[in-house]
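Thread: Newbie trying to understand structure tokens

Hi all, I'm a second-year student working on a class project, and my supervisor (Dr. K.) asked me to get a predicted structure for one chain before our next meeting. I've only ever worked with sequences, so writing a 3D structure as a token string is new to me. If someone could post the tokens and maybe explain what I'm looking at, I'd be very grateful. Here's the chain:
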Amino acid sequence: MSRIGKKPIVLPDQVKVAVEGNHISVQGPKGKLSLQLHPSLAVKVEDNQLHCTRPTDNKLHRSLHGLSRTLIANMVEGVTKGFEKKLEMVGVGYRASIQGRNLSLMLGFSHPLIFPLPDGIHVSVEGQNLLTVSGSDKQQVGEVAAKIRSFRSPEPYKGKGVKYATERIRRKAGKAGA
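---
Reply by user tm_fold:
Sure, no problem. This is what the structure looks like when written as tokens:
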């Protein structure tokens, strides 16, 4: 049995879960998320706990069991607490600002980069070079943070670029000039 798949998901008081066949909807204070599960997996809600079960022990069902349970647990956590990723911009003149639903980035190019924010994602700017990407969908928060980082990923010589706050850049020595 999958150690992760057999663990029940405890539902907080403010979370409502609707299971219709293999479609799950989770609603909480931070929003509403839904997920389409594999048709062979079953999900049951019993006394504020959600249980995910699989029909057989074949390889496909075993692999989907833990994955489905984790995706549902991330949805429950997302609608209660939310997820966030912090980004730092390192470089002279690198800065960010919010203009409506757009993020304007000055990253050393001749023009500012305008990044439209998707629905459900909020970006806050602390100072001019610290960004916090937050939202209820863990996958979407990660994708938006990765997209912002890809505009100017950090380089190993001076460490300039956009990096995650927890990321360590391995530095290289420059030219060994005579």
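A couple of things are worth pointing out once you decode it. The radius of gyration is 21 Å. The chain has two domains: 9-80, 83-164. Feel free to ask follow-ups in this thread.
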